[in-house]
């Protein structure tokens, strides 16, 4: 693993390489070198300025030395780049595809809102950008180990693992198509362009597209509503099949919530008890739509036989999937008292 950075070359004999910066928040924990002026990248290897930190963090966890690559350094001008004398790579983790570091610490982020847990990737491989190390922190005050709540805890852990594996605002720009080609163009650095507002890499419209509803009905009238939708091929096919709406552009992402919620979960209004929405719900399910997203990263193959059935909105058509709750209720109440979850 590369020390203190957000990338990993491979896991075997591929440690976290050290750097002079640490990633900021959990949702942007995979911030790349070009956001920081404190590291240089030479030949796809991250180099620290003058020296490496004594400890490398992945989330709240100190990464063991044996997981770390050698310390590579350059001077402040980005010259005289070399392996720091006496630094040797660790043994790595032979035969692993992904390393997941887990902690249970009461952090400042745990104290914000209703945070139960948070996660992100820490490093990506060089060849295809696949995440190969990540972390999750479970907030002790917000979780229970009681036997009757074990399923909830397990669902929380699964949810966080999927964030680290690919369902993350910091990874959308790295998704690849079925041929292994990047969905988002690369700059001269070899990485996607930066979005300084979001403090992450900007994805292309072939991955997430801005969709505008010009007459979104609300109490007292209508408004113009802008939403972000995942429009990758498998996700689009799955949401159209689920709702029975061939006009649906894609799968809507959450636009509300604190850091780490918006843009990194499915929209609650549309997907309710899908496990990758941003707030806990009863009977969370991991549906074909989430499996499709993971496959559309270009890094995984999904076993759809393991998908759980999502009843919310199934077969209710374009009115349900593309219009506001108010408009749906107004137009349907007079016709039927059937609840929103189909049989």
UniProtKB/TrEMBL annotation:
UniProt keyword Cell membrane present: no
GO terms of biological process kind: cell adhesion; proteolysis
Annotated signal peptide: none
Enzyme Commission number, as recorded: 3.4.24.-
High-level lineage: Eukaryota, Metazoa, Ecdysozoa, Arthropoda, Hexapoda
GO CC terms in record: cytoplasm; membrane
Binding locations of Zn(2+): 159, 163, 265
Protein family: Belongs to the peptidase M8 family.
Pfam families: Peptidase_M8
InterPro entries with a match to the protein in the record: Peptidase_M8 (IPR001577)
Entry keyword set: Hydrolase, Metal-binding, Metalloprotease, Protease, Zinc
The protein's name: Leishmanolysin-like peptidase
Residues forming the catalytic site: 160
Cofactor binding summary note: Binds 1 zinc ion per subunit.
Organism for this UniProt entry: Trichogramma brassicae
Cofactor names: Zn(2+)
Enzyme category, top tier: hydrolase
The UniProt record lists the keyword Metal-binding: yes
Molecular function in Gene Ontology: metal ion binding; metalloendopeptidase activity
């Amino acid at each position: 693993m590369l020390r203190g950075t957000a990338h990993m070359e491979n896991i075997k004999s591929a440690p976290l390489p050290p750097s002079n910066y640490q990633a900021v928040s959990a949702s942007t924990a995979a911030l790349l070198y070009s956001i920081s002026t404190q590291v240089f990248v030479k030949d796809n290897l991250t180099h620290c300025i003058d020296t490496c930190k004594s400890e490398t963090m992945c989330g709240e966890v100190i990464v063991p030395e044996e997981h770390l690559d050698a310390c590579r350094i350059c001077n402040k001008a980005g010259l005289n780049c070399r392996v720091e004398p006496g630094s040797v790579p660790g043994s790595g983790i032979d035969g692993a595809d992904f390393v997941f570091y887990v902690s249970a610490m009461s952090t400042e982020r745990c104290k914000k809102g209703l945070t139960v847990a948070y996660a992100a990737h820490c490093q990506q491989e060089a060849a295809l950008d696949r995440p190969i190390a990540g972390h999750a922190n479970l907030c002790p005050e917000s979780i229970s180990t009681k036997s009757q709540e074990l399923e909830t805890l397990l669902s929380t852990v699964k949810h966080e693992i999927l964030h680290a594996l690919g369902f993350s605002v910091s990874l959308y720009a790295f998704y690849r198509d079925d041929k292994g080609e990047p969905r988002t163009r690369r700059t001269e650095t070899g990485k996607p362009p930066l979005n300084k507002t979001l403090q992450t890499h900007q994805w292309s419209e072939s991955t997430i597209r801005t969709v505008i509803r010009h007459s979104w009905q609300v109490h007292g009238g209508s408004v113009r509503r802008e939403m972000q939708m995942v429009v990758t091929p498998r996700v689009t096919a799955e949401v159209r099949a689920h709702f029975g709406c061939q006009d649906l552009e894609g799968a809507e992402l959450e636009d509300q919530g604190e850091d780490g919620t918006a843009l990194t979960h499915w929209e609650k209004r549309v997907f309710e008890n899908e496990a990758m929405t941003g707030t806990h719900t009863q009977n969370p399910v991991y549906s074909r739509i989430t499996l499709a997203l993971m496959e559309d990263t270009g890094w995984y193959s999904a076993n759809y036989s393991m998908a759980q059935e999502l009843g919310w909105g199934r077969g209710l058509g374009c009115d349900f999937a593309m219009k506001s709750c108010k408009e749906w209720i107004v137009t349907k109440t007079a016709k039927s008292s059937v609840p929103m979850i189909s049989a």
